[in-house]
User: What shape does this take?
Amino acid sequence: MEYKTDKLRPTQPFLVLETQDFKQEIYLNQGISHFYTFRLEKTKEITTVPDSCVDMLFEYGENGMNAYAIGSPIKALDVEWQGKKEYFGVRFMPGRMPVGLNVTLRDLVDCRFYLEDILLDNNGTFVSGMEKKKIFKDRINYFLEEYTKLEMRQEKPFGKMEILMAVKELAYNSGGLMRISEMADTVGYTERYINKIFIEQMGFSPKVFCKIIQFQRSLEFLNYGNVDNMTEAAVNLGYYDQPQFIRDFKTYCGMTPKRYLMLTKRIRYNSLVENVS
Assistant: This one.
């Protein structure tokens, strides 16, 4: 059995499975995981799974463009997507709040906002400029140009936010396997205080965040690994036993890992993703 040990790239697998011409460019910089694009021919409901990420999504159609900031659900959620559209998205790293938004991560949980309503864009060119870009690479380059300007105006995190970022980084780097008590020892604050600021800012506990990271790692494992049996998979992914793995996976994905694996093999998940560099 192969186990993927490089840096986690959070995924929405059903966007890959249910859309057309899915492409992505891995970035792993400025708090951004990757950029992606796809088409959707018909309006349909697509399952969104927890990833603890914020996405900036740009929806292009005949009548113009809509832009959104979208937060993560905390369990599998069916969301309607509009057909006859082309989409461009920017997925931020788990727990990373994009700069330039006047909402919190807690506000974004299970929600989407029109980007123009919450974006701190002094001259209003960010969203309007994105509408003019027609090619994947051009959209990426323009987004980075404008996002970097927002970053330059952003104050560095301090106090609670600095602690929160440190805890999220520990959870992410451990694949969700680090205990809260170990995080508390590392950052020098009590478990109770870490839980308090995490819930205040994120809308859920650090334990849930770790479980979502662990679930996202299991998705990556099932998508790209060579899985011999679910018991071995559960052990490799750090679950206590196979029943816990199945229970958590079903909560976050809406189906068992075995059923998900059969689906990805039947549709050949790997062949649906075009990696652009």
About this structure: The chain is about 45% helix and 20% strand. The mean pLDDT is 90. The first strand starts at residue 20 and ends at 29. Residues 30 and 144 are 9 Å apart (CA to CA).
